[in-house]
Amino acid sequence: MNHYQKRKQAVALRYQSDTDVSPKVVGKGKGLVADEIIAKAKEHNIPIQEDPSLVEMLGQLELNQSIPPELYEVVAEIFSFIYRIDKNG
């Protein structure tokens, strides 16, 4: 195993159109915490999108912080992906 291998990271987003202006970071972590976030998402059938560079950017935000406007387009693509999965599922 490579000693320089990065630990797994995860960021959980929530968007409630009736109360949120934009998606918010509601969970984030590395290593075992990331594993827990992913396990909880799977347990509740919440879609998971793997994008290490986006996780890196979102991981710099604080909990309950709305995503910045410069990430709207990328995050909108993820929510579109989730919507398609949900619609076809």
TrEMBL record:
One of its GO terms (biological process) is protein secretion. InterPro entries: T3SS_substrate_exporter, T3SS_substrate_exporter_C. The keyword Iron does not apply. One of its GO terms (cellular component) is plasma membrane. Keywords: Cell projection, Cilium, Flagellum. Signal peptide: none annotated. SUPFAM superfamilies: EscU C-terminal domain-like. PANTHER family: FLAGELLAR BIOSYNTHETIC PROTEIN FLHB. This is Flagellar biosynthesis protein. It comes from Halalkalibacter nanhaiisediminis.
